[in-house]
Amino acid sequence: xxxxxxxxxxxxxxxxxxxxxxxxxxxxxxxxxxxxxxxxxxxxxxxxxxxxxxxxxxxxxxxxxxxxxxxxxxxxxxxxxxxxxxxxxxxxxxxxxxxxxxxxxxxxxxxxxxxxxxxxxxxxxxxxxxxxxxxxxxxxxxxxxxxxxxxxxxxxxxxxxxxxxxxxxxxxxxxxxxxxxxxxxxxxxxxxx
Amino acid sequence: xxxxxxxxxxxxxxxxxxxxxxxxxxxxxxxxxxxxxxxxxxxxxxxxxxxxxxxxxxxxxxxxxxxxxxxxxxxxxxxxxxxxxxxxxxxxxxxxxxxxxxxxxxxxxxxxxxxxxxxxxxxxxxxxxxxxxxxxxxxxxxxxxxxxxxxxxxxxxxxxxxxxxxxxxxxxxxxxxxxxxxxxxxxxxxxxx
DNA sequence: CCAGAATCCTAGCATCGCTAGCGTTCGTGT
DNA sequence: ACACGAACGCTAGCGATGCTAGGATTCTGG
Lengths: 193, 193
Known about the structure:
- Two copies of one chain form a homodimer.
- Chain A is elongated.
- The mean pLDDT of chain A is 94.
- With 193 residues, chain A is mainly alpha-helical.
- Chain A has nine helices and no strands.
- Chain A folds into two domains: 1-53, Arc Repressor Mutant, subunit A; 58-190, Orthogonal Bundle (Tetracycline Repressor, domain 2), CATH 1.10.357.10.
- In chain A, helix 1 packs across helix 2 and helix 1 packs across helix 4 (57-82).
- At the A-B interface, helix 8 and helix 9 of A face helix 8 and helix 9 of B.
- The structure holds a DNA duplex (30 and 30 nucleotides).
């Protein structure tokens, strides 16, 4: 039994090694540099080993994405609880969201643009994902007007944040005015009440 | 001289053939089906011909994207001018934008997610691109509050629309409540003043 | 100590975007 | 009218991708 557990532990460690290496490589050189050959070399195993842990490259990206959701949830929570007042909290969360996306672009891509292997708007979604959305929800909820569904309002605000980050990252929006645009978005979600 | 012009005309026709074939293939089977081999077979020429017209696959996608901008601008214009009142106009434009994205997903991807070959927020950007943004601008401008930069406000509203479409398209947002979310977004941009 | 199972690697497949180099066809000048 | 030169478009191939089949090697259990 002990041997069995040791093997399982080693397997789990190697799986973490894969995910960590994939993430570090992606953050250092972008996801286009994360090839199965390169990743295999990085963990000092051969390519097929990757496929004994994950169904394919997408599944590896999904694992990295889950890590990202957990970290984002944590950062959003800190920003929200550190702020006084509901408007300040929403602004702080929006700021934290876009800051996360700009600081960890590869992680953000894995979470929100690339992979689709993960279930999202269902109970089967990873708990880290629910946690991240929950932080947004808690910041948006207090500013929802009567008759507005807080969940839908959160989704809409989230879409605004997501649009700002992706359009800016792809060069569609100039970087300079980002803070102004973010302030406009937040203002228009707190103005109604 | 006549011979020269005939050749140029034929070249231009073949270039349009390439762009049209690429677009149709993408709209029918998605951009992942648009390989250079497949596209070459479709236009009944060999692969290298593509590279005598375009620098690479990205440039072909960029050409398709420009077509898309022109059509989107037209649809936004129709929606805006057909609506009475400023709030109705903004709602109509938002509706038209997301409807376009849902009806022509491959085109939308070429315009807003895939290619980066095109200049965007500069005067060098294709005129069709300015036209499309201009339609959004004309719809947003009237609802801008004092002290709000209309251009930045338009960019922010645009980001909201873009976020809604991409998150929905990738399965991150449930399709069902799309209309509600769109209504929320528009409402929060018309509520002020 | 040996049979059987688990594990991991070498080698390869099909496909991708893209390019070098060669024939062939066409327009031009004598 | 004819040979020459220059475009033109094709065949063939390169390097790299994600992924997999098959065998060699190691380890486990009787």
